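> example.struct
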């Protein structure tokens, strides 16, 4: 019986020491003290890089007043860090802001993430489908720009045995007609951890 009560008391103590589950504010970068990339880091990078695109005079369609928008094809962002991260966290944040700005369209017909645009055109021989509702060929809008980039990680050992971790968010918008880069942006997020030589 004494052993039973000892186990119960120990379990109660351990339970009392655990941090209760709670919501965190994604905009508060102090709530996730980790050397790895967090949602807040992606949000900051997406906001700053998108702000640069929206501020660039080259990225204003000449007929914006008439409702015209540039069409952007997101080629993808390469993960060149030591972590297994989903770079769509950065891309998605930027896509939402670019679309909501009213100045850009994002095409999903060519990036492989949405094959419906191409597949639905194969319904022209399907007897079940009303052929007048099948989307015709020659109607998909080609993009004006391609967005490409990468996320790099660089670790440096400090004299006090800490490790400085730097993440470089590098993006380029290329005019697909001329092949010229109309905008390039870079954001660096740096962190210091007590784990010397660590990687994530």
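> example.seq
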């Amino acid at each position: 019986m004494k052993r039973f009560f000892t186990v119960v008391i120990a379990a109660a103590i351990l339970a009392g020491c655990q941090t209760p589950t709670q919501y965190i504010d994604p905009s508060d970068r102090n709530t996730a003290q980790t050397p790895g990339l967090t949602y807040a880091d992606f949000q900051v990078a997406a906001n700053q890089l998108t702000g640069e695109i929206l501020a660039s005079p080259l990225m204003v369609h000449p007929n914006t007043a008439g409702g015209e928008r540039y069409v952007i094809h997101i080629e993808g962002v390469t993960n060149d860090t030591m972590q297994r991260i989903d770079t769509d966290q950065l891309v998605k944040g930027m896509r939402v802001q670019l679309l909501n700005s009213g100045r850009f369209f994002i095409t999903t017909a060519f990036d492989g993430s949405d094959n419906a645009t191409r597949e639905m055109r194969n319904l022209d021989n399907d007897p079940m489908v009303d052929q007048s509702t099948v989307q015709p060929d020659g109607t998909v809008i080609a993009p004006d720009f391609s967005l490409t980039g990468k996320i790099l990680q660089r670790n440096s050992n400090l004299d006090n045995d800490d490790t400085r971790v730097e993440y470089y968010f590098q993006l380029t918008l290329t005019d697909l007609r001329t092949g010229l880069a109309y905008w390039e942006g870079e954001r660096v997020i740096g962190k210091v951890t007590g784990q010397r030589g660590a990687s994530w």
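> remarks
The mean pLDDT is 83.
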